[in-house]
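Example 3.2
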Amino acid sequence: MMKQLLFTLGLLLSLSSWAAGLPGDPEEGEPDIRIHHQDDNTYYEYRINGVLQEIKVVPAVGKPYYLVPSEGHDSMTRVEESTLLIPKWVIFRW
């Protein structure tokens, strides 16, 4: 009986130390991307910690562009390239 208790306790301790080495919450610091479709456009809202950082607009025809919040204003400014530093890899494009 005592051996079973010690074995179970040792197993639980080893599992808890293994679980402590796992990475933290994947949501922490990761951008939250919300996708909306309206008319012929697709909108990707990039939020970090709940704060809107930029909106990627992908029209049905034409080149995608980004809307970023203007500093000190409640308006958005159009830019051609993303202002976020998110790893992006293009594996294949045609």
